[in-house]
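Contributing: when you submit paired examples, paste them exactly as shown. First protein:
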Amino acid sequence: MNQHITRTEHSAPARQFTVSLSPTRRGARLARLLATAHLGDWGIVCEPAAHIVAELAANAAVHGRVPGRDFRLGLSARHDELLRIEVTDTRDEQLPVVFSPDQYAEGGRGLLIVEALADRWGINVGPVPRKTIWAEIDLVPQPFHRVADIHDPVSHVPAFHDA
């Protein structure tokens, strides 16, 4: 028997997903739905990631839109320790700026949300005419709970005994 076939890997390999989407509200919504579905398939439940994808995709659709050009969503998970989200559009001349909008403003908080939810984020410019906004989330593995380890409150209720 070949040992390479029976070898057990102790860490998950890097996983990647990339898709091009139309720079529309529908494309931004689809980006969030696809990201959530792929992360679920990978066994990663990360609600902040869905919010980050939604904000970055909405920004690409609104501020990075060029007629006839799509935006690209990229997800990568490395060894279930790090999730990287990338959204690339074709408006490198229009870099996003984080600012505090007026309290009554209807928009302008997207990057504040990304900044609050991501462990790290940034901008890569190029190749022309592209820019990529990326965000990284450190994934904390959920502890494995066995059924026997779960506290059962019923087992601690005193029993009534006949006197």
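Second protein:
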Amino acid sequence: MTKPDTGEARLRMQIGEATAALLRLDDTAPGTAGQLVALVRVVADEAARTPRFAKSLSTVLSQGAVSPGAGPASGTGGTSSVRYALGAADPDNTVPARDTAPEGSVAPAQKAPARRGKRAPGPFDPFAVYREAGEPGLRVQLDVLDAERLKDIIAEHAMDYDKLAMRWRTPSKLRDRIVERVKALTTKGDVFR
């Protein structure tokens, strides 16, 4: 049997101390300990699954607001250091309360904006080509473009009505979508003329 390294041994000791504290909490406030265990489990699972979340969690925890083992039993910080980490006043009253989230993070009440990059404009106007050269001329112009340039045209002219075309990778499907939409929009209303 190999001897565990000191980091793993320290972690196991801290887990044991946390277990004892949770059992004491369950005696005084039944149910609360189970909720804390569920919360820690969800956070740990997400950190193990998502490297970006693990890095953000590590950054927040390494800022020193709440140090491991700081609690009422250890006499180092305890509840006041937890309150400080959550944005309350400094335990020594030397720093006012924070009313914004730490730099580089999103405040809990705010939603992160959806990431939407702007695509480049299409290399040409498919409607103008269709008016001048018809469907065969449009297909010839589209045949020389790669999937990304075809997606640029689709995005510029809002041809992704069912939110599927921007996921496609096959140039032939993208070309067919452009021709379909150009024909449909060009002939729209012809019945009334």
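If you have annotations for the second protein, write them as plain sentences, like these:
Residues 6-28 form the longest helix (23 residues).
Residues 35 and 41 are 10 Å apart (CA to CA).
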